[in-house]
Amino acid sequence: MKPPAFRYHAPTDLAEALDALAEVGHDGKVLAGGQSLIPMLNMRLAAPAHLVDINGLGELAYVRTDPGGVAVGALARHAEVEADEAAHAVVPLLRQGLRLVAHPVIRNRGTTVGSLAHADPSGEMTAVLALLGGSMTLARKGGTRTVAAEDFFVGPLEASIEEGELAVAAYFPRLPGRTGTEFVEIARRHGDYAMCGVAAAVTVDDDLRIVSARAAYLSLSPVPLVLDLTDALIGRTADTAVWQDAATLAAGSLEPEGDIHATAEYRAQLAGVLTVRALRTATERAALVDPNGNTGTTSTERSAR
Amino acid sequence: MTETQIPTEQRLDIRLSVNGVPHTTTVTPRRLLSDCLRHDLGLTGTHVGCEHGVCGACTVRVDGKPMRACLMFAVSAQGHEITTVEGLAEPDGTMHPVQQAFRECHGLQCGFCTPGFLTVVSAFLEENPTPTEEEAREAVSGNLCRCTGYQNIVKSVLRAAEITEERKGCAHAEGDAR
Q: CB–CB of B141 and A41 under 8 A?
């Protein structure tokens, strides 16, 4: 099908874009990569009266890494963030999640900030931002504000972006100490939306014993769900951990719903299996992290990709 | 009888560079790049399948990178170099290595999905000239073929890598002869 008619705005800098958004109010929608928005328009699931195309805002096409984390601008394409070595060194979970976002061709156009603003509960980046405790920067005419991930995702396809606001950047903080991460998911077809996905972060001490274990789930709840599973694993190592205990602990907090793709029971089963896989790999990676190193990554991890 | 006023839709003059050739046309902002290429510019090599980014038939290269033409507006393509399947062969008609490989290995059946595969694979081999079979499979994972011919498509990807290498060798040999 074809998109419904809309009025097209093509600002060339941020100030102009914010003016346009302020002017069009609730009838306006932002177009960045368009890899989620244009299918919705093509299928007539959305019909905004105005589209503000921010593809001319080159100033927002950045991936900036500092020792504390990675800032991603609104026009950075998934593929650019995925390929960024400095970002990978500081926040390996970004690439681990991005490689599962649709297909490479979609990642060439789609933006990381755009998928966060889209707030799809099946979106990998929502789980990454939630697990890392990251934040979003929202700009409007006359001001900006920063919203923590836990307050940003309000419901399915609903983020706390107000009328006239533009999501200009996302910040993915680096996890401290000996922390390893992993992102796994199961989809019916490679690149499809996951029936269930799990991102995990495990921190170990100098004796490689687990001190903290957390997991974020996608496609299971209206907003990204982050669970603290430390109680099931604390004091254990990768070799002595009883992974099933963590899966059991997680299962108590998960209330998956069934749909055309998978029953609730099947999703719960997937969540358990993926929890174990993600936690185990994250723990093994944590042991390889040099806590004094500046990068928080390892050579094996790099060669694995 | 009262006349209902039908609002006139916004129309924009755009300039597109496709396969190195500049074009000017007038479109509504909602004109998809895929439709603009086919209907406004007459470049019907780009095929349209699902129109929501799943099948990959409409894939073109934008500044060298494969992208879905059904998930871009023509107005957004201004200032970028678009390469469609028509732009893959050499000016003298010599087939692109990927085209030759698809012919040799029976990588096309009905041919509908082929333009999307060719644009994706041509870009993939520039990034990864010596793919493994697994990498070849991953590279085409975003494209659907309803003749279910993936075995031969994967073979074609690997063969295209060989042809590219062979042609490089020939070019060197010719250079040496001179």
A: no
